[in-house]
Write a structure and sequence with these properties.
The protein is of the alpha+beta class and 155 residues long. It is 37% helix and 18% strand. The chain has helices at residues 11-16, 19-29, 43-49, 59-66, 81-89, 102-106, 121-131; strands spanning 2-9, 32-39, 71-79, 115-117. It has a four-stranded antiparallel β-sheet, with helices on both faces. The longest helix is centred in the first third of the chain and has 11 residues, at 19-29. It is globular. Bound molecules: cytidine-5'-diphosphate and magnesium ion. Cytidine-5'-diphosphate binds at residues 53, 58, 62, 92, 110-111, 113, 116, 119.
Length: 155
């Protein structure tokens, strides 16, 4: 199914200059940029975004880490995009993430792990709404889409 998912280029990607290399991976996979912008996250949006972690001992450090620089938020579109992007992202801990994944190739930390990616259809929907206004999401399709997927896959 054609899906949209949310990716955040975390301060670890911004500070270390990996935005281009990571975006290139998503584009070479065939994912479509449906929305992209730079923003400074604040405590309010992070408490919402990471509500499942507010009770954890590392939460204050996570807040600090996510606010350490502006981030780039991106909405990517593609067939099964939520799962595809999670697979490309790899395990949370960069030391355990497989080589070939973004976290496996660019990080060595459980916290400074380069990108966020939505982990379920419900999360993706809520997260895209959290970070983008409706008019910031573009429902365009590149002319080359027929060379990325078969017509059956796009139904
Ligand atoms: O990002 P992911 O969905 O893989 O993992 P999560 O369990 O939803 O945790 C969200 C983020 O919290 C991680 O990506 C890490 O940046 C951070 N975290 C951390 O700093 N220390 C941990 N022990 C676990 C997560
Ligand atoms: Mg998560």
């Amino acid at each position: 199914m054609m899906e949209k998912t949310l990716v955040i280029f975390k301060p670890s990607a911004m500070e270390r200059g990996f935005v281009g290399q990571i975006l290139a991976r998503f584009q070479q996979k065939g994912l479509i940029i449906a929305g992209i912008k730079m923003m400074q996250l604040d405590e309010n949006i992070l408490r919402e975004h990471y509500s499942h972690l507010t009770g954890k001992s590392f939460f204050p450090l996570l807040l600090k880490s996510m606010m350490a620089s502006p981030v780039i938020v991106m909405c990517l579109k593609g067939v099964d995009a939520i799962n595809v992007v999670r697979l490309m992202t790899g395990a949370t801990n960069g030391r355990e993430a497989l080589p070939g994944t973004i976290r496996g190739d660019f990080s060595s930390s459980n916290q400074e792990n380069i990108i966020h990616a939505s982990s379920s259809p419900e999360d993706a929907e809520a997260e895209i709404k959290r970070f983008f206004r409706a008019e910031e999401i573009f429902d365009w399709t590149p002319a080359s889409i027929g060379f990325v997927y078969s017509p059956l896959e796009m139904q």
